[in-house]
Amino acid sequence: MCDPQKSAKGDHVVYTVIGEDEHGPFEIQRRYKEFNLLRSTLFQRFPGLYVPPIPGKRKMNNTNQDFIEERCFYLNMFFKQMVRCPYLYHSDELKLFVRPQQDVERALTLLPKLNNQRLFEKISPFYSIMGDIDNSSLQAINLNINGFCQQCRGNLAFLEKFKK
Predict the structure, then answer these.
(1) What is the pLDDT of residue 60?
(2) Of the chain's two ends, which shows fewer C-beta atoms within 10 Å, N or C?
């Protein structure tokens, strides 16, 4: 990945991303703001799971050659780390980024909102603590939690009386 190129106007830089997915090889050019949008979208849609960092924004002097090369290095690291995470590599968000059917920014912002159930279904396979929990195991865990909460309420009442 890389080969940074300044735009015709010189007001931004595009970075070339070369890779391969289940549909074959691809080569795309993306601006920093598209990488930033991808990362923030992944961060929102995979809460609690690792999403690699990207270099921070910079308002001034962001077309300086040294800065561009450094940013290129860190964007490359971001992409390499991201494709090593199965939940990110196989995500719809990454597919939209590398093979968009429309403008990348529009595609990422128009992704449907995830309700709690869909979000749970999407991320739970990637939490090792979840494991293979069936309904009876989940009910037993829930009973233990409820019992603990009742015990805490009883202890709190005892402590309130003791305090007086």
Answers:
(1) 66
(2) C
Report residue 71's pLDDT band, with 50, 70 and 90 as the boundaries. confident
Tokens standing for residue 115: 């309700």
**Domain assignments of the chain as residue spans, ordered by start:** 2-126, 132-164
**What is the spatial distance between Cα 38 and Cα 105, in angstroms, rounded to a whole number?**
8
CATH ID of 2-126, from 1.10.150.170, 3.40.50.1970, 3.20.20.70, 3.30.1520.10: 3.30.1520.10
E strand map for 24-147: 24-31
Q: pLDDT-derived band of residue 164, with 50, 70 and 90 as boundaries? A: confident
What type of residue sits at position 63? T
